[in-house]
Design a protein that fits this description.
By secondary structure, this protein is α+β, with helices and mostly antiparallel strands. Helices cover about 30% and strands about 40% of the residues. The strands form two sheets. Strands 3, 4, 5 and 6 form a four-stranded mixed β-sheet that branches. A two-stranded antiparallel ribbon has the order 1-2. A hairpin with a 2-residue loop joins strand 4 and strand 5. About 35% of the residues are buried.
C-alpha cells in the first residue's frame, strides 16, 4: 500500500517499502540488536545480516513488524523497548505519518561482543 500526505504544496506518496527500510535501519541502529541470519529455523536472512520484516500503511497510520536478534546477555525487554521507541521516532520524523503497532520478533539470541 501507499500512504498519501496532501498539503497545499501537493501530494507525497510513501510506500510500505520505505516505511520498512526506515524501521529496519532504526532497529539496526539500536545497541544490542542484530539482524537475522541463516540457520535460524523459519527465519530468512536479511540483506547484510540486518533486521527484516514488513510494514503497512492505512491512511496516515504506519505499522511495522521487524525480525531481529538480541545480543546476549542484554535484556530483551530493555533492548526491544528502545528499538520500538527508535522505530516510532524515526518513521514519524522521516515521513510525518502516525505510527501504530510496532511488533518485534526476537528470532535469536546472539553472543554479544566482549570488551577486551
Amino acid at each position: 500500500m501507499t500512504a498519501r500526505l496532501t498539503s497545499d504544496r501537493g501530494t507525497t506518496e510513501i510506500g510500505d517499502r520505505a516505511i520498512l527500510a526506515i524501521a529496519c535501519q532504526a532497529a539496526a541502529d539500536t545497541p544490542g540488536i542484530g539482524g537475522v541470519h541463516e540457520g535460524v529455523p523459519g527465519v530468512h536472512r536479511g540483506r547484510d545480516g540486518r533486521p527484516l520484516g514488513r510494514a503497512a500503511t492505512d491512511g496516515d497510520l504506519a505499522s511495522a513488524r521487524v525480525r531481529i536478534s538480541v545480543e546476549y546477555p542484554a535484556s530483551v525487554r530493555e533492548v526491544t523497548r528502545e528499538a520500538r521507541r527508535r522505530i516510532r521516532d524515526q518513521v514519524r520524523a522521516q515521513t510525518g505519518l502516525r505510527v501504530g503497532p510496532v511488533d518485534l520478533d526476537v528470532a535469536a539470541l546472539r553472543q554479544g561482543r566482549r570488551s577486551s
